[in-house]
Amino acid sequence: MRGIMVRGFAKASLSSAWALCVLALACLYLYGWRNLPLFPDEVALRIQSARSLVDGFIIYPVFPQCGNGSPMALPFYPVAYLLSAWDMAFGWSHIRLLAGGVILASVVTVLVAILRSGPHLAAGLLAYAFIGVAGSGLLMMRMELFMILQAAACLVAFLILRSRLGGFARAGGILTVVFASILAAHVHPQALILFPAALALVGGIGLLSASRVVSGVAALGAIWLLWAAGAAGSRIKFTCGDTTAVFDWIRNKTILGETGMQTLFSGELLPWTRKIDAYAQQFLFQKAYPIDRLPGISEKDLQSLMLWNDLIYWSVILFLLFFIILFISNIIIIVREILNIYNRKNSNFHDVFRSGAFYIVVFSLPHILYFFYDTEGAFYRAYYFNFVFVSISALSLSRMRGWAQIILVPPIVLGVALSFVSINETVASFDQKFIDGWAGPSLSLQQDGTEAVKPVQELARACGIASDEAGLVVDDFTYLPLKSHRGIVPWTYAGLGRFVIQGSVTTTGLMADLKHMSSAVLLRCENMAGVPVPGMIRQGDLCCIKFHPGPSQ
């Protein structure tokens, strides 16, 4: 008896230690990326998703050349209001703290789910979510962060569904997953890949509840989700006059594009090798990064990290493959469960909604399809996928019981080691450069935005921009001082829109676009690529062009 108790205590202590170790690693890892510069897309996303208190409830197209916006669907009003209130109240100084809080809350949710039935070593596998340079995307205020929050809300709802909690908690679980899903879909339609799981969980809680009130809340939640899904899906369509250039540009980044179709029907044994290789490469420490998004590491450090880079590379790929295997195995499990229910007397197909395998299948299928559909595979999306793959794998392996868990110790030790190495290299090669002001194409967060207020306002007056003038094109530096103006246009997507529609960016073409979509441009001169434009006013590093009077508020 004493031996059993000692072994049980030893196993509990070991698994709890791994869980605490993972949580500590996550905190240290994210802390190492706290000074990550502000990526231009983060500013553009804020302008497009958090402007309702200033502009009204309007949805703007990604590319401003594609129209002036359309009325926002009613399901998004609550989350749009909250995001806009946040935008008006805060600058950039705490942006990484907010993103880190979302990531850590999600990690804690996964750990609680793993340990809810007792101590388990699988908790240690979460260390693989914090390896390489994944932090450079996880801490970005982009749509993937809101999707991680949405996935965590789905997990909370699943835990409530499987618990014996009463009607109040079940209704709260429904509202949590509905709110998180609406928020994520408002930020970007990409969040629709999580809607099947959200709908299944809302329906499952409603069907399995004895309370009519909970069933009613579930029905209303499902209607709200479907309404929002339809509205978000309609935003995927791009129309820019009679041209289909935007649609073609988007499509060519997917399997439907010419390159993707050539890959699919190439006859190769492994047609997706390049896609998977590019995905894993996103996590590595490198001498130089595309678009100069990170400062890179020295040749000496690169040589010393060669083995660790290889281990990171293969770890990421193995979790992807394991996720696919889990998906297939859970399909088999759910089919067997359905057959058992069918052959059993007095059975109820509602029992399917109690099965963890059912929710893993519903959650995993859209992720696998989207992973291979998106042939370009941007870095920030890669880090989201790995976070999901690692979390689902750890949750699934937590069903292992007894001393079989001991086989998890070697991969856990490796994951912890990779995370430690990643933390050390992040601090050594990136953090001090961020503190010293390195920003690449981004904006250093060593500036909180307040120092931009005076020069931006002075240049605005010199340029003849009225305090109530609308339709200004701004960049990441000039947005905060000008955010009270209506109809703000993000410079990031204005330039990209011209490139997408015409295939190139010329001063003449871009100026024609800017005159059409805005009343003035006020941004850092470096964004104009040093090209002299008639009528441009320059003060220090800032440039302004006034086209014509804009509509007042």
Question: Which key features would you list for this structure?
Answer:
2 domains, two-stranded antiparallel ribbon, mainly alpha, globular, 553 residues
Structural features, described:
By secondary structure, the chain is mainly alpha-helical. It has helices at 2-32, 40-49, 52-55, 77-89, 95-115, 135-138, 143-161, 167-187, 195-208, 212-234, 245-251, 258-264, 273-281, 299-304, 306-343, 356-373, 379-397, 409-435, 450-463, 479-482, 491-502, 507-517, and strands spanning 58-59, 70-71, 472-474, 489-490, 520-524, 537-539, 542-546. The protein folds into 2 domains: 10-38 and 92-243 and 299-435, no CATH class; 450-546, no CATH class. The chain has 22 helices and 7 strands. Helix 20 (479-482) links the parallel strand 3 (472-474) and strand 4 (489-490). Helix 7 packs parallel to helix 17 and helix 15 crosses helix 16. The longest helix is centred in the middle third of the chain and has 38 residues, at 306-343. Mean pLDDT is 83; it is low at 1-11.
